[in-house]
């Protein structure tokens, strides 16, 4: 969980500064997990992106993401239009509609 927090912060800083991030490993284990970093988009300034408990619009909001920061989540869609992501405040896994996320980095760990 600490890795997710650090990677999110590191990625957010790189995105905010307009820099590039290079991550490398000598070898990738067979059980490697791939996660993606996303930049929040289509959220007006001063608002937050809601993270929902289930992948539907009427589901309970479990967290909110500040659009100035990046968020980590699954690279593949959880359903036709929703991605599973890690929230910021509660570090809860929830769902965000794909129209609000833009993939900026793929991380294999």
TrEMBL record:
Name by which UniProt lists this protein: SH3 domain-containing protein
Keyword tags: Signal
Signal peptide feature range: 1-32
Annotated organism of origin: Planomonospora sphaerica
Tree of life domain: Bacteria
């Amino acid at each position: 969980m600490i890795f997710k927090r650090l990677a999110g912060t590191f990625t957010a800083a790189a995105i905010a500064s307009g820099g590039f991030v290079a991550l490398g490993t000598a070898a990738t284990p067979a059980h490697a997990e791939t996660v993606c970093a996303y930049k929040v988009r289509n959220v007006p300034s001063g608002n937050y992106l809601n993270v929902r408990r289930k992948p539907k619009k009427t589901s309970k909001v479990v967290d909110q993401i500040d659009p100035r920061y990046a968020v980590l989540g699954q690279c593949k869609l959880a359903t036709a239009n929703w991605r599973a992501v890690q929230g910021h405040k509660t570090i809860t896994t929830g769902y965000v509609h794909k129209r609000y996320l833009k993939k900026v980095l793929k991380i294999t760990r």
